[in-house]
Amino acid sequence: xxxxxxxxxxxxxxxxxxxxxxxxxxxxxxxxxxxxxxxxxxxxxxxxxxxxxxxxxxxxxxxxxxxxxxxxxxxxxxxxxxxxxxxxxxxxxxxxxxxxxxxxxxxxxxxxxxxxxxxxxxxxxxxxxxxxxxxxxxxxxxxxxxxxxxxxxxxxxxxxxxxxxxxxxxxxxxxxxxxxxxxxxxxxxxxxxxxxxxxxxxxxxxxxxxxxxxxxxxxxxxxxxxxxxxxxxxxxxxxxxxxxxxxxxxxxxxxxxxxxxxxxxxxxxxxxxxxxxxxxxxxxxxxxxxxxxxxxxxxxxxxxxxxxxxxxxxxxxxxxxxxxxxxxxxxxxxxxxxxxxxxxxxxxxxxxxxxxxxxxxxxxxxxxxxxxxxxxxxxxxxxxxxxxxxxxx
Length: 393
Hints:
Helix content: under 10%
CATH class of the largest domain: Mainly Beta
Structural class: mainly beta
Oligomer: single chain
Mean pLDDT: 81
CATH architecture of the largest domain: Sandwich
Radius of gyration: 23 Å
Number of domains: 2
Largest sheet: 10 strands, mixed
Shape: globular
Strand content: 35-45%
Number of helices: 1
């Protein structure tokens, strides 16, 4: 495997049926200070079922009595792996998503962990910056006690070279979805759609499919929706630039980002709630930033908006007349949508025309979450997406 980003941490775990979560605690090298303070880590208690069996193995350490001592680190140390991109040798985890390795959720309950396949595996975390690392914490959840052999941690600065030939003890794997660089675009862009399959996407296959080399969401009179439907990408996003092409035949759709899923067991509200780059066949919602079921419209087409620390929204300028900006959109044809989100600043562009700009300083805003494509309730419709490229900022 060749990884082109600059600063990487690789966890190689030689064990079967690994359930693992990992975090790196570090900070920028220039911030280092000589004083040391305890690094207090609160990890979940083991959730063993029944009575764990006694384990024997050469050189197995005896269980440590009492609480694990805190590690000593300089003041200000932070978790630089938090929500950083993750790839792994297992492209299709048995449970969960690779983004859960660095999402801060440490619990050992369903929906909080990722399970990868048997045999030697690795996780690779792109830290995105040069850092001085003071502590690495790796923990796991399993229903029974386990011994993990040959656990290794590797570091790389710059390009990482690793063997790409298939190992004799296992079949060759195709690249994980969302890891292929995009030729012709700036460094850092990866493709989220291979043009043939929905690999890496989760959704109702009676609604979502691939037609003519494009992700297609379709409803008919027979498949009328009772609630909005979504095709969700496997990894969460925070700061990013997204580029894609869309084509809409009637109805309403949108690109959700930093969205949260409806809690398990609940039926009220949409399956996904979050910020969206909206578009529809009538043009009313095209180029609008919306938080349906949360803060509603954040920025209309043509507006420059600031939302202050109290949640108060103010239009501070414009990027053009809404009716003129809509002329840049080609109804029923392919259009280029670009979404740039960095912190609270969001810009929407369609076919090169800036639709709106948002400066969101509300502490209640959604900071990170799921990326998804939408099919809206209402009359039969078809929406298509292709050339879906993402760069994390």
